[in-house]
Amino acid sequence: MKTDIHPEYNAIVFRDLASGETFLTRSTLTSEKTIELEGVTYTVLDVEISSASHPFYTGKQRIMDSAGRVEKFNQRFKGFGA
């Protein structure tokens, strides 16, 4: 690898704003904010949604009634184009 062309790869904390959950990982992303976890100061990056708050992963997703929507569409446009 060439020297001095790659970004720094450091430990960073991702904080989910919706649930307050934090994830410690490594990344090349940077931020001015810091947080202290287990006595160590890390850079923190706030995210709006993660697997801790996403409806698909939490099991709180809505199931839409697609059959009712199709019937409503057909009723609305049954005489159109005839």
UniProtKB/TrEMBL annotation:
GO cellular component: ribonucleoprotein complex; ribosome
Pfam family, one: Ribosomal_L31
PROSITE patterns in alphabetical order: RIBOSOMAL_L31
Keyword vocabulary terms for this entry: Ribonucleoprotein, Ribosomal protein
Name under which the protein is recorded: 50S ribosomal protein L31
A GO term, aspect molecular function: structural constituent of ribosome
PANTHER family: 50S RIBOSOMAL PROTEIN L31, CHLOROPLASTIC, LARGE RIBOSOMAL SUBUNIT PROTEIN BL31C
Gene Ontology annotations of biological process type: translation
InterPro entries, per database record: Ribosomal_bL28/bL31-like_sf, Ribosomal_bL31, Ribosomal_bL31_B, Ribosomal_bL31_sf
Family, similarity comment: Belongs to the bacterial ribosomal protein bL31 family.
